[in-house]
Design a protein that fits this description.
By secondary structure, this protein is mainly beta. Helices cover 8% and strands 68% of the residues.
Amino acid sequence: MKKIFLSAFLLLSLIFAKTFAQENQGTKSNEVQYHFFTNNIPSGFNYPLIGFVNNVDGNHASVQVGIINSTTGNFGGLQAGFINSIGGNVTGLQSGFINSIGGDLMGAAYGFINSVNGEVSGLQYGFINSVSESVAGLQCGFINSTSKSVYGVQCGFINSANDVRGLQHGFINSAKSLRGLQLGFINSVDDVEKGLPIGFLSFVKHGGYKAVEFSYTDLLPYNLAFKTGIREFYTFPMISWDPELGDELFVGYGIGSNVDFGKTLFFNPELLSQHNISLDFNHYLSLKANIGVKLSDRFELVAGPTLSWNVKINADDFHQNYTEWNPDIISVNKLSVGYNAALRFCF
């Protein structure tokens, strides 16, 4: 019964809308037309629009709620629907599946796809966010793209901006200029004016630090590392091998810094975590205090003492007792002082 009543209501509404539209076929563009399903109003008629399709020929300052909302001029207030389109500037909130703004946004845009052809002052939140000018505030989504500057926060899985003045946080971050913090798994920036890229790998085009390092330590003799970032702060994955342990390899990850004392001499502290690839639980946490020498523009030599903490659990004990912690299963738990030396090729 409910379905029959709803079908009859929709049919009568369609007949009414069609008849009303035919009767007003010669209506001027500056007249108000309320058809329930389709509402058309001229510029400056600042009353709420509620219907399936809402059209404004000019400016509107009120509320628009419908499936499709379209305003050719500027808008102030709330626009909520499946597809929202504004040709001019927006002051207020735009909420829908697809939101499009031809001018500037001062307020918030919330939807699956948000597109602003001008500047954003406020919040842009959605799956895909695109801004042709600059953002002052927060841009948050799965993919964020800003053609010019970000003054504030850009947060998502993939972030792209020309200039970042604040925080860029995501899995992949890309910027031409950074003045703030870049935090992600992979960071790419052309110039770091005053800031810091922090990630698993950070690539800085101008003035960055990239080096391949071959090192020897008393704990794990043969080590190969790839170091990226800036001289003041870099990160590096590492792979190590000890022939006395047979086929076991160690993988590690660390952070470090180069503090220059002059043109050739520098202090090089590093913190490194390493774990073996085997059924045993064998872990090293090392703190290095190296002194480095620049042999040339490409080669650096570093060496110094190492403070290491080694924790080891035999495979049988580790896998039989993994459901509950028992200190008695630890076979090695000690601090040791050692040494390391390395040769780096910078490029």
